[in-house]
Amino acid sequence: MLRESARASAGVCRSTLGTARSVHHHLPGRRITARGPVVSGGGIWTELLALTLLAGTGIYATQRLREPQPRGTARQQAVSLADVPLVSYPELQKHTTRESCWILVRGQVYDVTDFLSKHPAGAQVILANAGKDATSVYGAFHPPGLVDSLLSPSQHLGAIDPSTLPAGERGTGTAVQLTEDEQRVERARREAPPVDSCISVQDLEDVARGVMSKLAWGYCMSGADSMSAYKNNIAAFSRYALRPRVLRPVADIDMRTALLGFPSALPIFVSPAANAGLGHPLGELGILRGSFRGGIIQGVASASSRSLAELERAQGEGHVMFFQLYVNKDRRVSERLLREAEQRGCKAVFWTVDTAVPGKRELDLKTRGLPSPGAVAAGGKKTATQAGIASSLGDYFDANLQWSDLAWLRSVTGMPIIVKGVQTVEDVELAVEHGCRAVVLSNHGGRQLDYARAPIDVLYELRQRRPDILDENKIEVYLDSGVRRGTDVVKALCLGATAVGMGRPFWFSNAAYGEEGVVKLIDIMAEEIATTMRLLGATRISELRPEMVVRVREFDPRKPYHRPRL
């Protein structure tokens, strides 16, 4: 029975490898229908590893990775159970070298010898897990369907023979004895307070930290180098004090707005943040459903742990998604991404321009034990692992992007272009000159350039130097990075922002409680924004004016609240 179950699992897996002919001959026997694995999860630098793996093989991140196909299509296949060989665990253990490297993932055995030199994180990461069950480490780093998409049918050697597994192993990556961190996460999930007990963004983040794995927390929480930019993003909002007007009727309030003409119930949106599947099994589906219920726009990351096809199927009527794009050196990959996004109903594209090279995210690197991306540009001698990462990043990110590339982007898609990652007034001016519809003032949540200015400070400078851009609506200006309170949102709106994005808070709320956590976050922000507007004496977004905010001249982040010196 165990052997038949293993073969059935292998048959399903085998069927996802495409129409290429298997090296094994089909034998008569019971038949099973092909269907693909559900995409979820991500991992170390999944913004990089998943993208580079997919790009290097001509597969793109939002492709429907072996999703179920309609009956009657050429992709529907049948695989004989007898066709799937069983591999003994002792045989697997023999193949642990560069000359012959096998791994076990989700009960299936793969020969990855020829793939070692292509792995973005280098060969050592694979070799360290060769000859044994690598499901846990693989699952932390990659979507489940990725291995079947990248390898040829001949590299899928078969299913592990369960009768040969050592005691305590199931062959699917789940050990009978949970790790210490897994036990901690399970305990935290059981003991998590009810979602209604959370009354602030910080409360949701605190719960998320408890229920997330160390790997997931390190990935999402990490910032560049000393994390000065991350910390300053949050603290910077304390540099701006509010000037309320009183004796104004504020019983009735309207917080509705529009981004590029698309309505939103609140002046906030979901900033694209990759790999929500690391925090919650449903990944971006929870954020999608929660943002739909809250009536706000969702930004979908290129490295989403759920495919656009899955999100499209779950999308509520009238709900709006904007797609985030990293431009690949091979423009054909980016073109496929954009066409897929447009076909799946995305209404605009966040063109991310602040990632010519990856920032050094130390918490992520320390948690996962991988080398610094500085090897990309440092030159000189590199370790094998560093060389692998350097090669992968060179294959994916286009470090030579420039404003003239807008012509190429417009030739590929009709979606309006939002330039995301603008950090100076000069670049806002250039975006206007080039006819862009909107910009996002953002430093990538403090994950790219350490000591980059806080976006709220860039917005303030824009208000001082070029108020015409804001007042005459020459371009829509959004802001993200560091937003944690309704007062933060209102301050940005007063200075001229059209709307404000939130990335980590939605990631954390989804990790903590799934869809209900996302709804709770939106409710918290709605209440705080409404209270702030009423106490300022405003009942409409249009009534929020620059004179309602004053910049504190002497700011000490250790003392976030003090009077401006007049």
Automatic annotation (TrEMBL):
Annotated compartments: Mitochondrion intermembrane space
Listed Gene3D superfamilies: Aldolase class I, Cytochrome b5-like heme/steroid binding domain
Domain Cytochrome b5 heme-binding: start-end pairs: 84-161
Enzyme class: oxidoreductase
Residue stretches making up the FMN hydroxy acid dehydrogenase domain: 193-554
GO biological process: one example: lactate metabolic process
Highest taxon of the lineage: Eukaryota
CDD domains: FCB2_FMN
Catalytic activity field: (S)-lactate + 2 Fe(III)-[cytochrome c] = 2 Fe(II)-[cytochrome c] + pyruvate + 2 H(+)
Cofactor(s) recorded in Swiss-Prot or TrEMBL: heme b; FMN
SUPFAM superfamilies in UniProt: Cytochrome b5-like heme/steroid binding domain, FMN-linked oxidoreductases
Pfam families, per database record: Cyt-b5, FMN_dh
The family this protein is said to belong to: In the C-terminal section; belongs to the FMN-dependent alpha-hydroxy acid dehydrogenase family.
PANTHER family per the UniProt record, alphabetical: L-LACTATE DEHYDROGENASE (CYTOCHROME B2) (PTHR10578:SF101), S -2-HYDROXY-ACID OXIDASE-RELATED (PTHR10578)
Name of the protein this chain belongs to: L-lactate dehydrogenase (cytochrome)
